[in-house]
Amino acid sequence: MKNNNIINEIELLKKEKNAIILAHYYVVPEVQEVADFVGDSLALAHFAQNVEADIIVFAGVNFMAETAKILNHDKKVLVPDLESHCSLADSYPAEDFEKFLKKHPDHKVISYINCSADIKALSTVICTSSNAVDVVESFPKEQKLIFAPDKNLGSYINSKTGREMVLWDGACHVHDRLNSDRLLELVQEHPDAKVIAHPECKDVILNFAEFIGSTKAMLEYTQKDESQKYIVATETGIIYQMQKASPNKEFIVLPSDENCNCNDCPYMKLNSLEKIVDCLKNETNELNLDYELMEKAKLPLLRMFDISFKTK
Ligand code: 13P
Ligand code: SF4
User: Fold this and answer.
1) Reduced to 3 states, what is the DSSP secondary structure of residue 29?
2) Is 234 touching ligand 1 by the criterion CB < 6 Å?
3) Counting atoms of ligand 1 from 1, which one is nearest the CA of 172?
4) What is the position in ligand 2's atom list of the atom closest to the CA of 265?
5) What is residue 91's DSSP assignment?
6) For every one of its 312 residues, what pLDDT tens digit does the chain have, with 9 covering 90 and above?
């Protein structure tokens, strides 16, 4: 009942303000339900580029909202909670990265979209987990490459493409902590289950996986695949859409090393219905970026779109 009132209020505010809500699969189910579009990083960025509404409320983490702003400058981009950082994006300060780049002057720079606008502006091209292979393969074999900030994704792409990209030493604190011993036990307990994993996981987890892909790719895989049971190695939020799309299938979440809910991304989980009402009603928590920075950061994003949507 309480939620019904808030949901009605959000719907009214969306109409009154000509606003649209975008959400990532890792936010809580009730926020995914009020969103006009739910997707992985690539789908969200692409959708944001073409939004016509005046206001975008971005229920995800800040680098995703920044990306929407970079791609669609004129829109007012609001975030439900300004503390929605991303540990991976934070592991990659621009000053340190500039020093790193100076040590590798003849390298092109591929940055995973989980990074700040400053880092995007320093990059040749951006990629996401759904197009990283295509982006890397768009460069000639002899081209020296830096891949940052996710060393797990970078090393997975190195193994898939036979490249030896220089990797920045960053990782997502959620995926990096998933428990490989527990995975082994779960595989033995459920021999009929398939392991599916996000490429931000360590290779000890990825080695078990029958399917590795972005959140959206994993969701689509579970819809098309014939198995009835999956062990899912990523953040917990995606289970909601998997279960919704395949109500008769079973999804087992791989836990973290620590005895905690560490496979919940704490930043994604800061998004709530109440905070959406607050930011929409008062038009607070607006993300603003310097215009020149946005222009610089936009180019590598557009290069990614060119590669990604040309090869598909
Ligand atoms: P996706 O692009 O696969 O949705 O991943 C985003 C992310 O932050 C994973 O931790
Ligand atoms: Fe960042 Fe990890 Fe959260 Fe994804 S799950 S938003 S990479 S902290």
Assistant:
1) helix
2) no
3) 10
4) 3
5) T
6) 568 999 999 999 999 999 999 999 999 999 999 999 999 999 999 999 999 999 999 999 999 999 999 999 999 999 999 999 999 998 878 999 999 999 999 999 999 999 999 999 999 999 999 999 999 999 999 999 999 999 999 999 999 999 999 999 999 999 999 999 999 999 999 999 999 999 999 999 999 999 999 999 999 999 999 999 999 999 999 999 999 999 999 999 998 876 666 789 999 999 999 999 999 999 999 999 999 999 999 999 999 999 999 744
Q: Which residue has the tokens 């509404």?
A: 53
Q: Is 109 helix (H, G, I), strand (E, B) or coil?
A: strand
Q: What ranges do the domains of the chain cover?
A: 2-85+268-288, 89-173+297-310, 174-253
Nearest CA to ligand 2 atom 1: 86
Top CATH class of 174-253 equals: alpha beta
Is 200 touching ligand 1 by the criterion CB < 6 Å?
Answer: yes
The answer, yes or no, to whether any atom of ligand 1 lies below 6 A from the CB of 256, is no
Q: Is the CB of 172 under 6 A from ligand 1?
A: yes
User: What b/e readout covers 40-49, taking b as 16+ CB neighbours within 10 angstroms?
Assistant: bbbbbbbbbb
Tell me if the pTM is above 0.90: yes
129 lines ligand 1 (CB under 6 A): yes
Q: What is the CATH number of domain 89-173+297-310?
A: 3.40.50.10800
Q: What is the fold, at CATH topology level, of the domain defined by 2-85+268-288?
A: Rossmann fold (3.40.50)
What residues does ligand 2 touch, defined as CB less than 6 Å away? 61, 86-88, 114, 172, 174, 200, 235, 265, 267-268
At residue 124, what is the residue type? T
Q: Hey, do 2-85+268-288 and 89-173+297-310 end up sharing a CATH topology, with the first three levels equal?
A: yes
* Interval between CA 5 and ligand 1 midpoint (Å): 31
Q: How long a stretch of residues is the chain?
A: 312
Residue 94 · residue 122 · CB < 8 Å = yes
